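Much of what follows relies on a compact textual record of a protein's fold. A record is reproduced here so that you can trace the correspondence yourselves:
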Amino acid sequence: MRSDTATEVFEEHRPVLFGVAYRMLGRVADAEDVVQDAWLRWAGADRAEVREPRAFLIRITTRLAIDRLRQVQSRRESYVGPWLPEPLATDAAGSPPDGAERAVFAETVTLAVLVVMEALSPLERAVFVLREAFGYPYAEIAAVLDRSEAAVRQLAGRARRHVEEGRPRYEVDPEQQRDLTERFLAAAAGDDLAGLLSLLTADARLVGDSGGKAKAPLRIIESADKVARFLLGVAKSQPAGLDFRLCDLNGGLAVLLHLDGVPDTVVQLGVQDGRIRTVYIVRNPDKLGALATH
């Protein structure tokens, strides 16, 4: 295989490789590092012995992501405040395999699911990603992880049960998500406490991620009243030069705020039974750089 052909093959599969790595790690920079390492392995491999480049590349990427995940998990233990995945433009999440349902594929990249996946072991997370997002058969996952098929099925079962227990048990219509988001923004901007409370579930939560590098609550805020009052307080103190736009991040509608043209905050709403159950706010500047073009 010529060098230019090897590059073309790798670039063809790069979106899928990034999709695997991002779901494993929740950080764009970490995922890009893993994909770059996979390229180095691919460039140095005896490609004449590779019959299925896609399978070979996904195997390399998954194993590298497992190693990286074990490294970053120790860093997250000392993270300042709550940790949320880095917001990702959905079209950058990698393409689903032939025949996969796009709704299922997109669901595996939502903030809610990625947060739940944080509690999985690296191997459980790898199995869940390959099985649920990319539709890999158990036998192929076993080959990727160098485990028996029976062991992989056990890992998949544990991972699926944990994710099902932790993720929202509802589907949100995109139009409903947009309507709630627009009403949420109007209520916050209009200092409308009653209007905001009417949109929140009684047990609403606000999860803010700043990494200690921007203003955000260092603990999860719980209850509709506390969440609403916090949001109204923040809305009153917004600086000049702040503007927002709606965009598609992590498989759903989100609000991206820019301050003087620089990404400053991402707000995304978790919806349950027609009301807002969770308000996710990402303010860590290290997690917003990739959105500069949005």
